[in-house]
Description:
Blueprint: E1 8-14, E2 19-22, E3 28-41, E4 47-59, H1 60-69, E5 75-88, E6 94-107
Parallel strand pairs: 4-6
Antiparallel strand pairs: 1-3, 1-5, 2-3, 3-4, 5-6
Amino acid sequence: xxxxxxxxxxxxxxxNDPEIINLESGKMLAKFTLATxxxxxxxKGEKITDTxxxxxxxxxxxxxxxxxxxxxxxxxxxxGKLTSRSYETKEGDKRYITEVVCNELLLLGK
Length: 110
């Protein structure tokens, strides 16, 4: 059960092309947003689609695969863990962000 403590699995579509960052250390980082959709019917019987946007980061070999094969609109499945961090803006405001650190990737669709 310990493997289930912080595990995220998502299937969705990329909102934009991934941002690829090559760090001075030689590591590669890929950052992108993933949209997941859930459909349901409201009390009037109308179909409603709810879209959630997820911030995703990937490192190393996973980032290299993303750089080569993943583009805006592509459907993918990811597995990873949730992380939260904070940073300060240039104006001194503190911001918080939650993101999925992707450690497995599956390319779906055509």
